[in-house]
Amino acid sequence: MSLEVLIWVVMLGMLLLGAPVFVALGVSSITVIILSDIPLAMLATDLFKIADMFPLLAVVGFVFAGALMDKGGMAEQIVEVASLAVGRIQGGLGIVTILGCMFFASMIGSGPGTVAAMGSLMIPSMIARGYSPEYAAGISATGGTLGILIPPSNPMLVYGIIANVSISALFTAGFIPGIIVGTALMLTAYLLARRAGFKARMEMPDGRTARRIVLHNMWSLLAPVIILGGIYAGICTPVEASIVAVWYSLFVGFVITRRLSCKTVYQAIRMAVISTGTIIVVVGVSNVFGRFLTMYQIPQQLASSMLAITQSPSLILAMIMLLLFFLGMFMETLATIVVLAPIFIPIIKNVGIDPVYFGIFWVLTNEVALLTPPLGVNLFIAMNLSGLSLERVAKGAIPYIVVLSLLTFFSIFVPEIVTFLPKYLGMKW
Fold it and tell me: What does the alpha-carbon distance between residue 420 and residue 168 come to, in Å, rounded to a whole number?
């Protein structure tokens, strides 16, 4: 068996045995290094390179900021304001959930983090007002997927690092697709609520009270403006913006909402360390894995094989979409990026596919992956919050999976939806 085949066999075997992704990548890489003439010292060198990946600090910052915002009550304030806009509509709480997820996503960049923050608020509220548990859990899990599409986005950060693409351009490109996907999900939530006969059942305040609520929650509403505005105005880099997000969250939590304490900050630090530690380990080990792939020209071989089948950009994207849908059932979102980006980037460049568009396209496929068992991270979080079985949560998410899949397929034929805004703003990548 050749080493090129062995590395895939060992990695897939480890994944089937239930080993974590970073273990599967590490064991497969070490196995082929030992059996080849590659010096083992390369392992330490490539692992150390993680320290040079400065943009990864933004992932740490945004995850920590998201945990602080959740503990500091900012998610709750966002939901309160969103309720003013759509609370009277039939199925309004479902729409509020999507709106809240869109707003919270614009501050933290994490899909599971968005589910945890919004779902903990909205699932009990919906069930108490007569919505079915499956509806509440399904829409909360789905709304959380917007956490990786609406900038800032942790998967976009990792993709930009690996593909050597402007992260600011990726963030900008995610706005229009994020609005389109969010609107489509809200429409789906409304139609499902109407079909099931769920009522609005929300007492709406008068105009004066509504203005008071908006003003009272203004500090939370300003967070995306401050965080993203700094990036697009050229005042700060994404890494610096993540640190601004952390300090802003601390300020709002301690001074405005007064919900933060030394204990809750410690809990937020613990959550952030666990989440980002996993990301950094996976990216570090993938350096070794990617080095082997490059040395044995595996990306070039795969590119040649795909181009021998077709050179149509649309068909190649369709094949990649189906592959990512399948792998997303078994591999974590960031793992698919760090493992497959070095393979796919040469292919899409060969056929003239824009790398910024491809990054957003990849994130769209990962939105579906967050909702598909057996991995489906968002489903598990919604399952824990709702007390339902995985099957019932997945049943509630099925209509949204169909909508997300159709939107991803549609984006293949209209890439201008993604690239229009960064090109209009004159961004280079």
Answer: 14
Q: Would you say 118 and 75 are in contact if contact means Cβ atoms under 8 Å apart?
A: yes
**How much is the pLDDT for 133?**
92
For residue 226, give Cα distances in angstroms to 89, 229, 267, 339, 421: 30, 5, 25, 34, 20
Residue the block writes with tokens 């939806």: 417
Q: Both tokens of residue 20? A: 């974590």
Q: Quick one: three-class SS letters along the chain?
A: CCHHHHHHHHHHHHHHCCCCHHHHHHHHHHHHHHHCCCCCHHHHHHHHHHHHCCCHHHHHHHHHHHHHHHHCCHHHHHHHHHHHHHCCCCCHHHHHHHHHHHHHHHHHCCHHHHHHHHHHHHHHHHHHCCCCHHHHHHHHHHHHHHHHCCCCCHHHHHHHHHHCCCHHHHHHHCHHHHHHHHHHHHHHHHHHHHHHCCCCCCCCCCHHHHHHHHHHCHHHHCHHHHHHHHHHCCCCCHHHHHHHHHHHHHHHHHHHCCCCCHHHHHHHHHHHHHHHHHHHHHHHHHHHHHHHHHHCCHHHHHHHHHHHHCCCHHHHHHHHHHHHHHHCCCCCHHHHHHHHHHHHHHHHHHCCCCHHHHHHHHHHHHHHHCCCCCCCHHHHHHHHHHCCCHHHHHHHHHHHHHHHHHHHHHHHHCCHHHHHHHHHCCCCC
CA angle in degrees (0–180, nearest 5) for 329-334-339: 85
Question: Each residue of 68-106: pLDDT tens digit?
Answer: 888 888 878 887 887 777 666 777 888 889 988 888 888
Boundaries of every domain in the chain:
1-38, 54-424
Q: How far apart are CA 346 and CA 327, in angstroms?
A: 20
Q: Which residues of 225-262 are buried (b: 16+ CB within 10 A; e: fewer)?
A: eebbebbeeeeebbbebbbbbbebbbebbeebbebbee
CA separation for the pair 182, 101 (Å, rounded): 9
Residue 201 has pLDDT above 60, yes or no: no
- Predicted TM-score (pTM) of the model is 0.81
**CA–CA distance, 101 with 178 (Å, rounded to integer):** 11
